[in-house]
């Protein structure tokens, strides 16, 4: 049975993100190889992966090579750093689907790059990226930036169980 995974903000090829976010890599090449290995350690060939933006700063050939090396059927929700390239560019790079807008998943989870405004009385959860090492408080937000999850995609069940656990603490 195929799983569904979520992750964001790899910033492939972005050397400065190592310093900006205190990433534990010597250079962008090491960062790329470690992040590909961690992705492929959990994602199978038939699994679905939602990448919630800011995927690559590299050219088409290098981005296409990385996408091809990553397991799974990949959907990209465009992040602020992805929007300089067209939706068709990302499709050509190897993503199966590309969305310029948030996606509603399982009628309850809003998938977006930037955190969305979520009233604390709303029953929904915003699965997002963009804010890297920061974290929004409250049960309505779930940050899937690579910095929080050891550069490894999370399954839907991991997110759902964490959300349920946080609600039980309230």
Give a written overview of the molecule:
The mean pLDDT is 94. Helix 4 links the parallel strand 3 and strand 4. The longest helix is centred in the first third of the chain and has 15 residues, at 28-42. This protein starts with a strand and ends with a helix. It is built from 5 helices and 9 strands; from the N terminus they run E-H-H-E-H-E-H-E-E-E-E-E-E-H. The chain is globular, with a radius of gyration of 15 Å. The strands form 2 sheets. A 5-stranded mixed beta sheet has the order 4-3-2-1-9. Helix content is 30%, strand content 18%. It is α/β, with parallel strands linked by helices and 170 residues long. It has one domain (4-169): Purple Acid Phosphatase, chain A, domain 2 (4-Layer Sandwich), CATH 3.60.21.10.
Strand pairing plus helix content: what structural class?
alpha/beta
Helical proportion, percent range = 25-40%
Distance between the termini: 33 Å
CATH topology (fold) name: Purple Acid Phosphatase, chain A, domain 2
Write the CATH homologous superfamily: Metallo-dependent phosphatases
The overall strand count is 9
What kind of sheet is the major sheet?
5 strands, mixed
How large a portion of the residues is in β-strands, by DSSP E? Answer: 15-25%
Strand order, sheet with most strands: 4-3-2-1-9
Compute the gyration radius: what is it?
15 Å
Order of helices and strands: EHHEHEHEEEEEEH
**Uncertain spans, ≥5 residues at pLDDT below 50?**
none
Count of separate structural domains: 1
CATH architecture: 4-Layer Sandwich
CATH class: Alpha Beta
Number of helical regions: 5
């Amino acid at each position: 049975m195929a799983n569904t995974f979520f992750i964001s903000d790899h910033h492939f090829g972005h050397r400065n993100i190592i310093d900006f976010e205190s990433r534990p890599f010597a250079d962008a090449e090491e960062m790329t190889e470690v992040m590909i290995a961690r992705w492929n350690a959990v994602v199978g060939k038939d699994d679905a992966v939602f990448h919630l933006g800011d995927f690559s700063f590299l050219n088409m050939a290098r981005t296409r090579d990385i996408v091809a090396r990553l397991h799974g059927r990949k959907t990209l929700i465009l992040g602020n750093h992805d929007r300089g390239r067209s939706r068709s560019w990302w499709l050509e790079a190897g993503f199966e689907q590309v969305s310029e807008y948030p996606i509603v998943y399982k009628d309850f989870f809003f998938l977006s790059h930037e955190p969305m405004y979520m009233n604390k009385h709303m029953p929904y959860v915003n699965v997002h990226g963009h804010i890297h090492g920061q974290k929004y408080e409250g049960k309505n937000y779930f940050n899937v930036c690579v910095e929080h999850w050891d550069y490894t995609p999370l399954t839907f069940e991991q997110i759902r169980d964490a959300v349920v656990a946080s609600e039980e603490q309230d």
